[in-house]
Amino acid sequence: MGIQWRDSLSVGVEVIDKQHKELLMRFDRLLTACEEGKGTAELKKLLSFLEEYVVTHFKDEEALQLLRRYPGYEEHRAQHASFVSRIKELREETDRDGISTHHVLETNNMLLKWLLNHISKVDTKLGAYLNSGTP
After folding, report:
1. Alpha-carbon gap, residue 19 to 89, rounded angstroms
2. Which of 14, 38, 73, 98 is the most buried (most CB within 10 A)?
3. CATH of the domain at 49
């Protein structure tokens, strides 16, 4: 199966692109682990990574948006908050109930939607704005 970085996902801001590449690499690890029947073990690692990743990555993105007075800031920030909330819910569920196939599938679905709807659309729109020279 696998998932890899494509230049069409580039925001054009090195630090953001590097963070997105790391997220895709981690997502790919989960997909590979699922193919090998080891998805539940990999999910625990991924959720720990995501808890730290979202704090750093979203802070960096939002700081750039504020600095450049990005007009879509509030909506973008709301999407980040929703993603953080879902990661927290998944973490709480897996801590309470243990990791199940349901959680692996839910995380795969969530990350795929994030890739397709947020990174490839919302973040690339942000990148176009940041790279347009608009103050």
Report:
1. 23
2. 73
3. 1.20.120.50
